[in-house]
Amino acid sequence: MTKNDSSHKIFVKIPFGFGTYRLKILRSQKWGAIDLMILISLLEGPKTSQQISTESSLPKQLIIEILIPLMKAGWVEIVNSDNQFLFTLTERGVAVADGEDLPPNQDPMSVVRSFLIDPLTEECYRFEKKKRKQNYLIYKRPKANSLAKQYGNYCIELKVLNPKFSPKISEILNCLPNENEEVVGIEDEYIKENFSNSLRFMLACVDSENRVTGVPDISTTLKDAIIEAAIKQRKQLLEAPLLASTSKSKAVAFEVTAKERAFQERKVDPQMIKVISGGDDHHQHIIECITNAHSRLIIHSTFINPSTIELFIEYLLACARKRVKIDILWGQTEPDETIKLQQYNQIIVAIEKFQQRINSEGLSTQINIHSTPTGSHSKFIICDDKYGFWSVTIGSCNWLSSGFNRFEASVKVTDTSFVADCLNITSELATGSLGVSNMLSRDLAIEASRLSKVIDNDHNKISNAVSVQLLTSREHHALIKQASDRVSDSFFICSHRFSFAADRPILTPLISAKKDNPNLSIKVAYGRTSGTMKNRDVRLLNKDLEKIGFDIIKADDPQIHAKFVVWDTKNLIISSLNWLSSSSKGHDFSELGVYLHGSSFGDEILNSFNAIYD
């Protein structure tokens, strides 16, 4: 291979997910002070463009250019009087001229927008087929293969293992509108969830200095993989010069594995975080959430108990009368056992009766108790208040089936970005076990997209900020393993249930940590045994654990239902996962937790626990 050949451009074939949505877009006109000034001047009566020009000291041509958009908005019209063309306000124009600002005044438009999905990061890029200045092209598989063949051994395929083609709907919505547009709806017929079935390909060009062209503004992760693939192919051509002269060799590929995505760590003011413990505090908290909700309230409870709903139905009705939109979701799926199935069907009937009662109050559009279960064991409340602050409360409490007589643990986080993450999760849960998009799932995705664009207080200026991270199911046990490797002083784990499932993912790394650090304090609290584990089994296990220095607490008076972990006091996880009995396998959102790092929230919940169980 010659020196000239070694600097030859390398082409890398990359797969992208591809989708198309038909959206309802509200396109806002950016009105200015001059627009409002002209409307106010017309409150005095009809005027010619020359009169307006003279009064405002602005050129006549500029006045006409300003008046045209105002006419298109329906606020100004032309009338003929004494052979003069006069501009006058319409009724709508009179109404808006009295305000401090001019509102966007268009009806939503139906538009079709296409997008591409990064196979490594799931980032989304808008694709416009007719955009002249677009610096990349996409191809279907046959065309991409044909082009790759033409480039011969100067082309290599990026083969992505476990590609990611399921982005959050809100991430898709964030990339599709223009700067002056807002997505207000998604039309049914264009919803397509499995984007891996409609792949498109790009041919990225990598020059001798590893500059990449022919692709959009892609993620650093994908760009690095493209460069690595090109470097590999250059090296191969240098080692086997004959390959450079033939295009008949076997196609080569560079394998790269897509990483699992995690929710971004948020920096939050400690004053915006509240740890809730105990049954009474949880009972009071749900009442406060319902009473103070301003425009939106979402409650997700694993189980529903009609008697518990009866406790709150009047609060819910009063909340709905204030025009708050309320959605109640639950996770319990249809059981196989006959006795449990009868109980399940009774709950379905009770839900229907509650909905009929709601409808009879004329509040059918305000409160919806969704009968289709989500299949999730998570428990949370999302709401906003009259000051515009959004919050989410996540933890162990089954808000709509609890008797509020057990020890619970939850955490309330008031942070717009964090709530947007939770709305994305709720959007997916709302699709049910079949994953079918519906009005609620799309509505929540649009709300999540809107909130993700809202900038909270400047978190960088918070000197004592707490790191807050949303944990999906699969992340729970991995974080415990990480914690057991790093813990230095103390570790406390609290679980409602205890079973043999706790042996490997939880106890094994803790036993190893205790052997490495004999001075490490490890306490394990549980409420009851579960599965095939009997009381005698747990007694034997407890003896073995106590021999190596574990402190075991059976917390059953009152019964403990909380699920939390504290290590070295500064680290706290509050979750819906039964740490000592449940698997973290299943879909990502079957369990939800919150990891707090910083401040004294760990000590706070331990003090609450010790006050009852010491």
UniProtKB/TrEMBL annotation:
Alphabetical list of InterPro entries matching this protein: PLD-like_dom, PLipase_D/transphosphatidylase, WH-like_DNA-bd_sf, WH_DNA-bd_sf
Domain PLD phosphodiesterase: start-end pairs: 377-403
Coiled coil: none
Pfam families tied to this protein: PLDc_2 (PF13091)
The protein's name in its UniProt record: Phospholipase D-like domain-containing protein
Organism of origin: Pantoea sp. BJ2
Molecular function terms from GO: catalytic activity
GO biological process: phosphorus metabolic process
Keyword annotations: Plasmid
Top-level division of the source organism's lineage: Bacteria
Keyword RNA-binding: no
Gene3D superfamilies: Endonuclease Chain A, Winged helix-like DNA-binding domain superfamily/Winged helix DNA-binding domain
